[in-house]
Design goal:
Layout: H1 23-36, E1 40-42, E2 44-46, E3 49-51, E4 56-61, E5 64-73, H2 77-94, H3 99-114, H4 118-129, H5 133-160, E6 170-178, E7 182-186, H6 192-204, E8 208-212, H7 218-230, E9 238-240, H8 245-253, E10 258-264, H9 267-279, E11 289-293, E12 298-302, H10 308-320, E13 330-336, H11 337-352, H12 372-386, E14 391-395, E15 399-400, E16 406-407, E17 410-414, H13 420-423, E18 430-436, H14 441-450, E19 454-455, E20 457-461, H15 465-474, E21 481-484, E22 501-502, H16 513-516, E23 520-528
Parallel strand pairs: 1-5, 7-8, 7-10, 8-9, 10-11, 12-13, 12-20, 13-18, 17-18, 20-21
Antiparallel strand pairs: 2-3, 4-5, 6-23, 14-17, 15-16, 19-22
Helix pairs in contact: 1-4, 2-8, 3-5, 4-5, 4-7, 5-6, 10-11
This protein binds nicotinamide-adenine-dinucleotide.
Length: 543
């Protein structure tokens, strides 16, 4: 099926299984070995040129931190100025390139990623971000392919939204103009697909971008840049400027040509960027579009009618996949006392079966956390719970960074619903459980709603349809992505547009038309075929 232009209606990229004996498993393993044995030096890419700076940092493997994958050049103020100039120069042509032509580049990138680039980008994600093969596949391959294909489709759909009426004698239309200036795309460490999407979604709409990837995930980001170049992205449309956020950010944000910010990361950093934009507001040529998806304190509320196996599995997968380093990871659970006995046994049994280690061993469900600073911060939360009278550690609680940054899947049981680990984002494999009296269902829903400043994801688990509906209604503003009888993670492009409210972000729904609309400034055109030639109206005629 096609819409009015030539972009095929996309379907989600099928997830490869990597089962024992599968060709994809053998080929991914081979690529991992090749990347590990070949150190690379990652340049900045500005105006299509590889640029080296004076300042380098190393890229390493979090589960084997002595293994260096290579080094990358970091941008300073000189390189930022170059990147802004290169982007403004590319804007002159790219902003006038037709939507079909732009879509062709990203559709080709999708095909390349689905084919010859799949292993490289999955392997790079496994190595530099410590994701297992499945987590890498659903992120770096499938989700990014989906972003490319679905955004091309949504862009066409957006273009089809035209004024309702063009009465006889005139034609009314809406043009999707790209923003005037450049977009600053700043990505987090935890999703390769988000890294790719932040500069590419605005670029799909005819914008140019400066892309600053997270310092701990430059390696896969660099391969995405290579993929885009091979797909035919013109020079200067996306300029790759890794570096320290504190050095790069203010230089970019204070430029008068800043037309938008496409950010994903922590709430603090986003609020800091917004403040800087506010301070500079009189200097910009146009009001910058500010789109940011930030932190979460994602919940699970179980009703006493919950199926114990469904609940335990949602908790284990929701809290511990990718070591809890998903913005959507379940990190607080509200369980009725009436089912706790049965749940506890099933849940602890499942957690005790989790294997943790190197993602090259495919039997490992969990791997390492991203870096030393994340390791220390998560360990501090665990120690706090360990030393507290309000909490008991039910599973895990140990951590070790001798070889890699490993933290056991940790479950804290607290008697205090406002315990620190029930309220603050930890961003690690830590789930805190609070037990409630099932007769206090309504009060518990109010507690879930009021405990955290965030409102990203959450889930309710139960068999009682009435209770599920009550939870859905009571928690209307507590999550931008709400799940019924499922874990709160794993949103899929084209199925669950993603984003949260309150302190979790501007909720512009990545992977949907609603995100793309932020990257255009529309022009309305009214063309009159037979314009009036006399200023007088009929009512002015006296009989
Ligand atoms: P982070 O905020 O530390 O870093 C994000 C990016 O901001 C990095 O590229 C970093 O270098 C950059 N940065 C830091 N200071 C800056 C500054 N002053 N100016 C400009 N850029 C600056 O986040 P992280 O640790 O990479 O990622 C984890 C966070 O991201 C968590 O809070 C998580 O919830 C959030 N996240 C949210 C979503 C979502 O969709 N809501 C998705 C993924 C991650």
């Amino acid at each position: 099926m096609k819409n009015t232009n030539n972009i095929p209606k996309p379907i989600n990229e099928p997830i490869l299984s990597y089962e024992p004996g599968s060709p994809e498993k053998a080929s991914l393993k081979k690529r991992i070995q090749e990347l590990k044995s070949n150190k690379i030096e990652v340049p900045l890419i500005i105006g299509g040129q590889e640029i080296k700076s004076e300042n380098l940092s190393e890229m390493y493997i979090p589960h084997d931190h002595q293994h260096i994958l290579g080094s990358y050049h970091k941008a300073g103020s000189k390189e930022v100025t170059m990147a802004i100039e290169a982007s403004l120069s590319a804007w002159k042509t790219w902003s006038k390139t037709s939507m079909d032509e732009r879509a062709k580049v990203f559709l080709k990138a999708a095909d390349l990623l689905a084919g010859p680039w799949r292993d490289t980008i999955n392997a790079a994600t496994m190595l530099n971000m410590s994701k297992n093969a499945y987590q890498a596949e659903i992120d770096a391959a499938c989700e990014l392919i989906d972003f490319f294909r679905f955004n091309a489709w949504y862009a066409q759909e957006l273009a089809e939204h035209q004024p309702m009426y063009s009465p006889e004698g005139m034609k009314n239309s809406l043009e999707l103009r790209p923003l005037e200036g450049f977009v600053f795309a700043v990505s987090p460490f935890n999703f390769t697909s988000i890294g790719g999407n932040l500069p590419c979604a605005p670029a799909m709409m005819g914008n140019v971008a400066l892309w600053k990837p997270a310092s701990s995930a430059v390696y896969p980001a660099y391969f995405i840049m290579q993929l885009l170049i091979e797909a035919g992205l013109p020079k200067g449309v996306i300029n790759f400027i890794p570096g320290s956020g504190r050095d790069v950010g203010p230089n970019v944000i204070s430029d008068s040509n800043l037309a938008g910010v496409h950010f994903t990361g922590s709430t603090n950093v986003f609020q800091g960027m917004w403040k800087t934009i506010g301070e500079n507001i009189a200097n910009y040529k146009s009001y910058p579009r500010i789109v940011g998806e930030t932190g979460g304190k994602d919940f699970c509320v179980a009703h006493e009618s919950a199926d114990i196996e469904v609940l335990a599995t949602a908790m284990v997968r929701g809290a511990f996949e990718y070591q809890g380093q998903k913005c959507s990871a379940m990190s607080r659970a509200y369980i009725p006392t009436s089912i706790w006995g049965a749940l506890k046994e099933n849940y602890i049994d499942q957690v005790n079966n989790i294997k943790m280690g190197d993602p090259e061993d495919f039997s490992n469900f969990m791997n390492a956390v991203i870096d030393k600073s994340a390791f220390d911060s998560i360990a501090e939360f665990i120690d706090f719970a360990h030393d507290s009278n309000d909490a008991e550690i039910l599973t895990g609680g140990k951590y070790n960074d001798d070889k890699g940054y490993f933290i056991e899947p940790t479950t804290i049981l607290t008697s205090n619903p406002k315990f620190r680990t029930m309220c603050e984002e930890i961003f690690g494999p830590v789930l805190t459980i609070f037990l409630y009296d099932p007769s206090e269902w309504d009060a518990t829903l109010a507690l879930v709603d009021s405990t955290s400043e965030y409102a990203l994801t959450g889930c309710v688990i139960g068999e009682d349809k009435g209770a599920l509906l009550e939870a859905k209604n009571a928690l209307t503003h507590s999550a931008g992505n709400f799940y019924i009888n499922d874990k709160p993670t794993g949103a899929v492009v084209g199925q669950q547009p993603f984003g949260g409210g309150r302190a979790s972000g501007t909720n512009d729904k990545a992977g949907s038309m609603f995100n793309l609309v932020r990257w255009v400034s529309m022009r309305t055109v009214k063309e009159t075929f037979e314009p009036p030639k006399d200023f007088r109206y009929p009512f002015m005629n006296e009989e």
